[in-house]
Write a structure and sequence with these properties.
The chain is α/β, with parallel strands linked by helices. Helices cover about 40% and strands about 15% of the residues. It has one domain: Rossmann fold.
Length: about 200
Amino acid sequence: MIITNKFAWGHFQKTGGTTIGRLFENLFKENIVYADSEFKHEKHDTFKVKSEKGVIVPDIRILNIRRLPEWVVSFLWFSERCTNIEYKKDNYYKGTILDREFGKAQDKIISRNIDEYLKSYFDKPITDFIRMEYLNEDFISVFGKYINILDDQKRKIKNAFYGQGHYNKFEKYFNEKEIKQMYIDCPFWAKIEKQVYGNLLYT
């Protein structure tokens, strides 16, 4: 999480958060009043958890989001790479996904409810969203409401790399029928995605 005097940005997993964190560290460090290390799992704390830890969290809250099928594929590959859960399409099942608790390889494997995971960041309304697929542009338009972004900084943001890899080729892993069912299985995510993007894929 990154907190300034004006807003709090929550690091929702697998939505380009590492890039956001590095951009702030490199370009806007003077605006930061609180930031988690990118190497600590606490960076994924929800706004509520941070508040319970005694951190002052502003009411203006910003969260990254991405298309649900992209997120699922990205999370499945991340789990194999970082938590030693072998990539299997079936690790996603009816709105749940296999994970290791706290992201530590030595911890037990759990079945995480995707909707509940996203919903945990919504103890209060989210003010703005940053779409991973448009991360560079949304960074400028969203954070630019609250901090001054100079032209040179805008150029650096537009050239920033964030890894989507093969994750955005979700059609390789799930067919149209499966994707439609995925949205049915995750109604809260579907509601937020439609609110942010204006539509859902294949609907």
